[in-house]
Amino acid sequence: MQMDGRLTALRELSQLRLINIFNQIPGKKDLIIDAPLMKALDRITGISVLRKHDVDKIFKLDSNAGQNSVNNQRLYLIMSDLISAKRVCDQVNAEQRKDVDYHIIVVPRKLAAIDQLLEEEGLWGRVTIHVYQWEPIQLDMGLISLELPSLFPQLFVDGDQTLLPAVAKSLWSLQMLLGRSQVTLTLGRYAKQVQSMTEVLMDQIGEPDKPQTDIGCIVLVDRDVDYAASLLTPATYTSLMDEVLGIRSGVVELPKSDAKPDEKQTIGHLLSSEDEIYNQIKNRHFSDVFSFLSAKAKQLSNEYDQSRKMALHEMKQYVSSQLKTVMARKRALAMHIAGCEAVITAIGARFESLQDMEQNMLEGTNRRSVQSYIEENIVTGGGGKLANLRLMCLLSLTQDGLFSEDAWSLKTQFLHAYGYHLLPGLHNLENLGLLTTSSAGLGSGLVTGPVSDATGRLANKVAQVVSLPKRSSFQVLRQKLKLFSANREDINLKQPTDMSYVYGGAYIPIACQLVQLLIKKEVSFEDIVNQLIPGSSVTPSKPSIDFLPRSFIVYFIGGVTYAEVAAFQLLEKLTGTRIIVASTSVMNGSTLIDSVL
Amino acid sequence: MKPAKVMFSVNSSLFLTQFQDHFIMARQDSEADDFWNSSSIKSFNFDDEETGGALFGVSKSGTARLSQQVRASLPGEDFGGTSDSLTGSTSTTPSNTAPPLRSLISENCLASILEADLPDAVYGGRTKKNDMKPEEEIRMLKRQVQERWDAPPVDLTIKNIFLGRPHSLEPYRSLSSKHLLLDAAINLGDGNAILEVVLFLVRTLKKSLVHQILAANPVAAAHYARYLATRLQATELTDLLVMLGKSREAAMKQYQLCTATQSVQRQIQKLKLCISSHFVQGDPNLKKIAQNHVALLEWEQAVGAMDSEDLVGKSAVGCLAHACRLHWDDPRGSPTNPFSLAQLHGVCEKQVQWTILSERASQQAWPDIDSVFITKNWIGSGTKLKLALPIEKVVIQLHSKGAPADVLSKYLGFVDGQERRIALAQQLGCHKVVIDGYAALRDRQGLQGYKATLHPGSESFLYAEGVLRVSTTKWKN
């Protein structure tokens, strides 16, 4: 069975594990759900299943959720963090109801800090804690996500590793389902830790017994190994929709054209490859989408014309067999056209200049004009807060930090335009290694030490060996791994043969390129560990030279972008391999930055 | 029109009625009819009609038209979502055709996954206890009692935390065992285990020892710092960060806590305190920003009260815009005067100019704009532009604010190079500037071509004719 087919078990497993918790609590229950969990939960279970297991009323967690509760078994489903737990404690303490049994289901882990909080609040023993971790959610073919977006800021800004075991656990269940991976490659320090935690799980709670494994190779990647892939402006249909409208748990919210003033102004649309139109455009370069949609509209209109010439009995037949699908396709079509519209409105005017500037940054050219482009954007409000920070970060990342006078001028202008309260946010970006100041003056590109952490960590070793004084460590890495189109001037965006098409030819994400080099046998696992990526590891430590994996799970710790997903799906097609992209969440440059402000 | 949910779930006779309704509607609605009957899609004009706003040759209006036509043939979008959805807003759900679970995973693996949710089981919890022989159970309980008092190996305890199994840290009473426990937690990398051990250390060791251990273990310190920040234990957090030599970090955390304060008055007080304790030493640039923040909040309060407008939370540029709008004529030196405000905050020239331009243009106060941007030469003849921004952006902004032709012409006059000027004027529909531009280039063909695009008999058309007739012009073509 194909990996994708087997992965459908994930949803059922998640649902089963949730039901097991409900079954431990007898009688009718009210369920109060923390809002951030709603969308993910929607992908795991439905109201009818909850009802079958005695869930009566369902509320969103807010200050008066308790008041509307009617049953005396009450379940709170919350993220395992102190703030959510405190909200529940406050509600329970405020109510003073002796007749209610309180339960808190924490997602994804039980935490010592929450235990301590319960004790301090005098609720120890009064409230029963349950733990629930869902399996990775299959967002679409080839893409699974743990849907824990808070992992990124927690882990990479604050260095809090509380959610790492959840990643390990999901990696363990994936292998219980698909078989043990033959080789595991880790890129980054957290990846390494997740790998060893997964081994503890195998050792302590069970090992896969599948004789023939589906997984040739697992690649675990820390998000900070490649920030450029998330900061660059992507160009595929899905990735631009995510940039402009935001896709959450695979659902995009589109403006409703016929909404009444008092109702919700948007309608959620599930992006699934089962939607035949979406399946054909999801990874297309945006320039190749609208023409497809108008052709599709034409085709549908012809089919419709046919149906109008039908006799009544034919029509009856048509209605019962065809109409449903035709209407669904039309609806999908309308939705995707609206998606295009939103993208063009939001980003059309800036797109080309943006791509030019990003190209300059990647190549380390025209630094002055890039600087003034960003300044003018800040001044004239072009693109908005996050887009401008994104450009600043990309400039810093690609040049090993901003010159100190430039850095200060950009930051001040930014704070003047968007508010002084964002100062700590800028500091967080600095901590991430995304908005740093180069200590050296003009002309010396290479910087060692903590100043330019992000690519620095990764590339410094490479850089020191190669020693090209005018190039930043980012550019050295870019050359070394060939992270650009082989044929930039002549790239085919409509029938892409090069993964860089996802950024209009500008860049190939590092993880994608490493997997490509492995598949094509241009590098070995040992090359990656010993020469290319400092801090990477491979298990077993000396895989056979002849071992050529044909199936991969690439798991991003801290989030993956739709552009990277598209690049992997192209690679899959070009090489006839199978690549499942897994991640703790799906994100883009703006959501990444927003999560740390 | 009925919600489509009905359509999808009821028998075909209902379908049929709906379908016929739909037919009738489509016939009545000429636009929809157009769409489905003709090949009108072909005639879509993909030309970019707006200034900007096209992507890869597809314009907004192009998508809008197609969108409207496709939608027009649909029986209404709001079909209530699927009833089974928790959020109740999704228009589609994936078809649920998954094969049964047991065909996808072995019985053993499934059992392991489900048992992992009941970690107590391993230690004789609900599910397994019953299967256990009495002597086994005694042995296990004995072991548990023993472990309660003799510290089990640190690795085992950390694994138990990691797996959610029962455990106790109490047996680790010696300082060396506490060290080992923390090392084991950090080594495994489970943040919850790390924090649990740190909280245990905090509970059982004096502060100076805790700090010593945290200083030697940055990973542990990071977990504790985040815990303190979440619990708003500001003093402890500052102590910790300062002890670790991270005073900048401490300053930023305090700053963040201050800005999260609801009441403005309290926020100002807290910020002042924060500045005096965290910003006095260190980066002077940061101190300046923090001080400006306080000054801005005070300004917002005072001016907001004066103008009966809520200004709190606006950025410096936002306040500058407010000052440009309502306090343009306030004397220089008065704190409400825009230039004084800009100077106080050190707003850069580009930002000041753009704000003045946008705000005064919104007020249609063109002379004010001239007074800022245009200076007379020292001999008093001719004018010069004092501009930190690209002139194109300025002219486009003037145009978007509805500047009259003479104002636009004046600023277009500052665009260097006739070609650039002509192109921009053409984009903004400033015919006179375009015509003069061609004349200056002595490009008769260009001018004739342009004249052909003008409405015959219009003022611009006549003007172009006039220019073409001037006999003294030496046309180059």
TrEMBL record, chain A:
Q: What are the TM regions of this chain, as residue ranges?
A: none
Check the record and name the InterPro entries matching this protein. Answer: Sec-1-like_dom1, Sec-1-like_dom3a, Sec1-like, Sec1-like_dom2, Sec1-like_sf, VPS33_dom3b
| Gene Ontology biological process terms, A to Z | vesicle-mediated transport
Matching PANTHER family, A to Z? VESICLE PROTEIN SORTING-ASSOCIATED
Q: Which family does it belong to?
A: Belongs to the STXBP/unc-18/SEC1 family.
Q: What is this protein called?
A: Vacuolar protein sorting-associated protein 33B
TrEMBL record, chain B:
Q: Which UniProt keywords apply?
A: Cytoplasmic vesicle, Endosome
Look up the domain of life of the source: Eukaryota
Region called Disordered, residue ranges: 74-101
GO cellular-component term (any) = early endosome
Alphabetical GO biological process terms: intracellular protein transport; vacuolar transport
* Compartments (UniProt record): Cytoplasmic vesicle; Early endosome; Late endosome
Where composition is biased (Low complexity), the residues are 80-96
Name of the molecule in the record? Spermatogenesis-defective protein 39 homolog isoform X1
The protein's organism comes out as Thrips palmi (Melon thrips)
Q: Which gene encodes it?
A: LOC117650055
